[in-house]
Queue: 2 jobs
Job 1
Amino acid sequence: VSTFCRAQTTLSDKAEISVITCGPGQQELYSAFGHSAFRVYDPDLGIDEAYNYGVFDFNQPNFYLNFARGYLNYRLAVQDYKRFEYIYMYFDRYIHEQKLNLTQPEKQRLYDYLQWNALPENQYYYYDYFYNNCATKIRDVVAKVFGDSVKFDGSYVTTNYTIRELTDLYLTYQPWGDLGIDIGLGLPMDKTATPYEYMFLPDYIESGFAHATIRRNGETWPLVKERLSIYDPKQTSCTK
């Protein structure tokens, strides 16, 4: 029996689990890349939660230096989804929702894992700028829970950007932050990113899930069954 199968709550058959993608914002360096989270919604149980892997202590020593170098502790927090959503609306950042095409047992497995991961002894992780962040966590959790039954098809990626070039796309309005990241992270940024590695960016998590499949009982299904635009910004986006 897996160590994370310790469900606190059994979801109803009306439950939905979604991937939420929030657009970039220029308020702070760490908001320039956008954001990803899970949403668990169960109207029968009164659950509407955001599972947010992007929570950190802004008062950590040398915050911006360590952010640029990728040396921060992050954690998974469970938040009221509507409050989570309101913040991105307030800052005029788009919100997209992708409802996952999961059976009831699959939803329960994913929810069990998220509940386990949110326990105090499990919620912290060592942030890595490109390989272990709020976006890659979404992909990696799904891969952890469902294993090889989920496939991310990267053939839609037709560019050959390096990690540095992908980062630069989002930092047009953050020149000092861009410089700090370039210096802090150095030459490893100059490797050409694989389609899988593009998914350190929330926009590419959304695209990656849109092109992913899940296999069950010998049949292959799209991993996303529905995409909703929850909020469209009133102003033109400053990226891409």
Note: Confidence is low (pLDDT under 50) at residues 1-7, 174-180.
Job 2
Amino acid sequence: NAAILRRRSLDLVIVISPMSGPVRPPTDLYGASRWHAGRVARREVKALRESGTAVVVFRPGPAEQEAIGNDFMARDRVDQIVQQAFLGAGSFAARPDIRAILATFGMQRRT
């Protein structure tokens, strides 16, 4: 639903897309669901960026997807999923390019 923000003249949008998946072609129903969600998110983010809005997108990487598995609502692994999501999001936010974007908008970590 990031596309609805296009006309809002926002400086920064942070998109959290937990259902997004890899760009590679899907091999099963769950992969197709992730592929579709990722495709929609990429299209919406592209529209936001073309409107001049800075965008940071958090989506699951391979480790997060492995923790989630094919059950997006797995209660028996919620602690593992949350831990991996926390670590993955922290690593992503620490990347120099992402830190620079966040710092531009006053969201940098104070030391």
Note: Helices lie at 29-50, 62-68, 78-93, 96-104.
